[in-house]
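Today's session is about reading a structure prediction critically. Students often jump straight to the picture, but the first step is always the sequence itself: look for stretches that repeat, for charged clusters, for runs of hydrophobic residues. Only then move on to the predicted structure, which in these notes is written as discrete structure tokens rather than atom positions. Here is the chain we will use throughout the hour.
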Amino acid sequence: MDLTLPIDQINADKLTTEYFRNNYLKKSKPLIINNYSSIFPAGKTWDFEYLKKRVGNFKVGIFDNRIKTATAYVKPHLYMPFAEYLDIIKQDKETPYRIFLFNLFKEFPELRKELPTPVIMKGVLGKIGFAFFGGKNSTVRFHYDIDASNVLLIQLIGQKRVILISPEYNRMLYKLPFSSFSLIEPDKPDMSRFPALKYVKGYDFTLYPGDALFMPSRFWHFNTYLEGGMAVSYRSMANSVADLYQGLMNTTLRLALDKTMNKFFKDQWVEVKQEIAMSNAKSEINKAEIQSLDYKIKWPAKQQIEVKNY
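Below is the predicted structure for this chain, in token form.
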């Protein structure tokens, strides 16, 4: 698994909407925008103490990373006052507790003025801003966003490690059918169990406070909070009809089928999905090996012709 691809970066004051849309949004190419949060009031004022004052008494749903789930969109594992949660994650200690898809601006609409919809993400989904929080070394399961939307993730507090991989490697990533999850752990890949990973290329980088990451539709990502942190994401519709269709199917029929089968046939259904994922990856390995063999056969012949002509 090669995670050394360089990701494009640009400073916020150098980025125009036209340049972004032509070179990244339309081309489904990832990008880091440095110092992006500084163009919003939130980038200058939001820290844990500020948020405690504004949101502290609100009870939030907490997810425990130690509890593994088989499907997407599960209910929170516990609830606690937001201020209490922030006191936990601001410590320099490991914690499994995360908050994700917290519709902060729905609950506290006055905060939207401090982090309004970025111009580059204006559109049908533009007003949907979700907040994400995590403590030191908490991780986000390797996945792509089930609705297949484009995502702009604005890192406001703390550093975060991100592994990002193109959807072209879906089957080689041992994608589970009827879901947007994978069998692998990209931060510690088991190459003996998952040999298709040797053909996979991706990005591995750190997001710093103030950075924003543009993740195109269906890009796989695995996040690790290097310290207690917070980010807010904004979304836009997928570029292609194919991606729009996949997002619609994922959030309707596939999700419903997956939840139903998991409810009535949990262990058997998990085994079936794992077998399909392994089989799909094996097929991709065979294709890759055939292409490699074909290249090796053709390449020497091409060399001989070139030498002879010379």
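Discussion point for the tutorial: The domain at 8-256 is CATH 2.60.120.650 (Jelly Rolls).
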